[in-house]
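Quick one, T. Sequence first:
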Amino acid sequence: MRLRRTALVVPALLALAASACAPVDEEENDAASDPAATGTAAAEACATENLPLVTDGQLTVGTDSPAYEPWFVDDDPTNGEGFESAVAYAVADRLGFATDQVEWLTVPFNSSYKPGAKDFDFDINQISISAKRAEVVDFSDGYYSAAQAVIALKGSAAAEATSIEDLKGLQLAAQIGTTSLTAITDVIQPDSEPDKLEDTNQAKQKLLNGQVDAILADLPTAFYISAVEIPKSTIVGQFQPETGETEEFGMLFEKGSALVPCVNEALASLREDGTLDQIEQQWLSDVVDVPTLQ
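Structure tokens:
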């Protein structure tokens, strides 16, 4: 706020005193204190026609390519199959958009959380909510909590690990910019520099080639890798990446986006009526029989 010149201070104080003695407009006062009025204003802001969108009448959603299972199916976000595709369309529905009003945009994972203007309304791509990222982008409330999982080939020395300490001597790998890589460097703190790869496909290939001992991914992805993509692999164990705190995935927005509270409202309704839980049960494997690494 700019400072006024000294000559203006006395008139300003007199004006303030006069206003303090003036009668208050009852209608204005009631509107300011009425929760119903506040709720009405919020509802109006989140009405479909009033949403702040990149393209009028269209919800533009970003995600990476390839889009991996079980988050997406057949590398096709538009089909509504896979956990994140289904969640995106459910949120779109609550915001008032039909399926054909949702447009998908390819956004590389590592560029999604860079500062600056975005050409999408939100991005959904297993992006962990973090204070550092939140300095330059905004996040919705979390829509899924995930642990990190360690994947190794069956019968290998890495597959016998039962603790974080057992992982320190291994050659590990994960995708650049992911919580999996952060979990390696900050939690496991291995003796040798981990392999930092452009995508999960490279990590899987290095594991198959015997170039790394184990790779890290979020637990649902690890289930799919071990069950479908690398059947001769096994999930060694799981752990939370930040001192036991739950890691949450959130939808990512341009910093200051007025769309965030509306998406949070949609997520809250999906959670309250059980829809979000139903989508999770349909597309994500239950976290059972996977030992926790301490």
